[in-house]
């Protein structure tokens, strides 16, 4: 790339924040759009710009001169997806078209239904079962359409369930553990013996940036990450037990029936219940294309990744919310 300026939409979130910092550390000039730059500006080294991703003019202004737009913005707490997600993407596409920037999107497995399981590659059919999955499919369809017109380049990096420091809206932080307190038990959403795929946020950010920094051979490209594959639903639980030093930490099952009953009144429960099917069958991403491109996938050892996550969530006794204050594995 002749210039290395990136606009990150969603830099105050988990994946957006990690990608923004990785770009900054790699020598990029990083702009970050935020409704309240003063509050968000705690992340140093970024150029914070006041604006809303729902404003086409704000996004276009922030993207001027950028060669990369990271579209990592999502409605908070899963609210108003149907009203907000596609307009925000439309603004990013318009800004990319005007600036010549490439769009970098973190993808999800929500796009897929049982007809594509258990092993997903980049050509697997996208026939989702849920409203949010249908929106994700539509996002990628619109990006493909923009790319086919020849004026927008697109890179999608798909990964499993996020965990890591700053992964607030995640199954790890909202399901397995309770943030801000010492662990006395764990909760697991999946069936016994059913595999599940996890993705450590710093690894995802590293992968996304490495791919974005390579010369694009295709105007529209998708890559799948392998992440951490938990073949029977016990690997992550056992890693948590090892990190906290409690091998007999009890594991409870997620109360799906209670959440289903409460879902008409609790938007978060409604969205989580929709995704239950992803915990009832193995869903694994094939990363062969990614490893062929990069040689190897960035991969932090599981215990190290779990420890950093628990530190970030305030779940390790005696640790503050920064990895610098806690012992390493």
From TrEMBL:
Protein's UniProt keywords contain Protein biosynthesis: no
Lineage: Bacteria, Pseudomonadati, Pseudomonadota, Alphaproteobacteria, Rhodospirillales
Ranges for domain NAD-dependent epimerase/dehydratase: 6-216
Alphabetic keyword roster: Plasmid
KW Zinc-finger (keyword) present: no
Superkingdom assignment: Bacteria
Pfam families assigned: Epimerase (PF01370)
Cross-referenced InterPro entries: Epimerase_deHydtase, NAD(P)-bd_dom_sf, NAD(P)-dependent_oxidoreduct
PANTHER family, per database record: NAD(P)-BINDING DOMAIN-CONTAINING PROTEIN-RELATED, PROTEIN YEEZ
Protein name: NAD-dependent epimerase/dehydratase domain-containing protein
GO cellular component: cytoplasm
GO molecular function: aldehyde dehydrogenase (NAD+) activity
